[in-house]
Amino acid sequence: MGAQLRISREDAALPCEVCGFPTMHVAQVVADDGTVLGRTLVCTTCQLTRQRPEPAATEAEAPPDEVPTA
């Protein structure tokens, strides 16, 4: 089951405590069937600048444990 965040365009934005920009919104957490599960605060500026974790290296991409010597 997935969920979406819906931000109202009519509601005013608040100043974010982290970045200081007035881009903090109250968002609804909505299930796939349209049921509102709850509300949360979302800063659109902080979300855009947040570093996404890099995917873990697979065994094929990982360097070998031993390096051949001549």
Q: Secondary structure elements and their pairing?
A:
Layout: E1 3-7, E2 24-31, E3 36-43, H1 44-49
Antiparallel strand pairs: 1-2, 2-3
Structure description:
This protein has one helix at residues 44-49; strands at 3-7, 24-31, 36-43. The chain is mostly beta strands and 70 residues long. The chain has one domain. It has a three-stranded antiparallel beta sheet. Strand 2 and strand 3 form a beta hairpin.
In short:
This protein has 70 residues and is mostly beta strands. It contains one helix and three strands.
Q: Whole-Å distance between the termini?
A: 55 Å
Fraction of residues in β-strands: 25-35%
User: How do the helices and strands follow one another from N- to C-terminus?
Assistant: EEEH
What form results from the Cα inertia axes?
flat
Which class of secondary structure composition applies to the elements?
mainly beta
Biased composition (Low complexity): 54-70
Region (Disordered): 50-70
Keywords for this entry:
mainly beta; flat; 1 helix; 70 residues; 3-stranded antiparallel sheet; 30% strand
